Predict the 3D structure of the following.
Amino acid sequence: MLLLERVGDNVAQKVAACECVDASESTLSPANTVATAVTLKAPMNLLQAEPGSTYSIRAIRTEDDEMNSFLFRLGAYSGEPITLVSKKKRSCIVVIKAGRYSLDAQLAEAIIVDKH
């Protein structure tokens, strides 16, 4: 993805393109255009993660207060490391702190992670 930024008259216009765009093909002139490569990562939940890897919990995405409270009691909160031991279609086994837990798909999908 390429981000083109045009600066002029104290106004910054940002144009994001899904494909790489050559500044010479753009309607913005190369003289007032700064090109910067931008990498966007889609949020990854535990069911999308690779088994055997350690991740950092980025967020817990659930509207259910009871589920949020349950995960917090397990030690699953933002910034905490979590290791995905194994996974199946409808569940996964994780290590949080010193505990090993089996999580169903609903719980695993609520845990958003980044590579540790």
Remarks:
- The radius of gyration is 21 Å.
- The helical segments are 65-74, 105-110.
